[in-house]
Each structure stands twice: as C-alpha cells, then as structure tokens.
Amino acid sequence: xxxxxxxxxxxxxxxxxxxxxxxxxxxxxxxxxxxxxxxxxxxxxxxxxxxxxxxxxxxxxxxxxxxxxxxxxxxxxxxxxxxxxxxxxxxxxxxxxxxxxxxxxxxxxxxxxxxxxxxxxxxxxxxxxxxxxxxxxxx
Length: 139
Known about the structure:
It contains five helices and two strands. The protein is mostly helical. It has a domain at about 1-80. It has a two-stranded parallel sheet with strand order 1-2. The longest helix has 24 residues, at about 80-105.
C-alpha cells in the first residue's frame, strides 16, 4: 500500500495498491475505520490475485471530490506565513534531535561530511548509490 505511485513503481515492488491520498494516508482516511478496512481488504486481494510481478491496482477511494488537495498539500504558496514559520520551527527542532541522536551514536554530522557512509551501509546500497551518480562521502 502506498501513496507515492511513481516512487513505489520505480522501486519495482511485486504488488502495489495505490491510494491517491496525501503521503502518510495510504491506508485510508484518518479517523475513518471503514475506509481503512476497505483499503486493507483491497490490498490483501491484490496480494492474492495479482497476475504477475509489478502489479499495480489503484484504489477507487478519493480523498475528496475535486482533487484540489493536491494543490494545497504542503504547498508553501498557499500557506499563511504563520503556518510556514511554525512548520519551519518544528522541522528545525526535529533536525536538532536527529543530530543529537547521530552524535550520541557516534555518527557525527552527516550533512557536514564528517561521518562517511563507507562501512556503515551495505555494499549493494553503496553500489546502487554510485550507479545513480550519488557518491557516498569518503573519509
């Protein structure tokens, strides 16, 4: 189950139920157990009945009637300045927590390049990163 169709299909998952909902809501609408149950049931049917690998089925459920949520969802141009400031402050807090956790784990500041990926990720991941043109930082 997922909401980022292009990414999930690019990854080549064997079976995929696509919900055209905002990210984080691929299992159905919040506080609507009926849509969540329907989505789970449909995902299990996709798992059982897919005719082959890389099968994608789109859920018939819609977030709203007109699809305008796609224009509004995290669109900074449609947000009041106060909301943008609130979200930036919240994001900055989360980044500080993540940095503290990385430092506590001995990882250093990855963004500054002081914590190379070499030896900390699988060789297959390193190979795929190199093939995609994204090279891990070196010591």
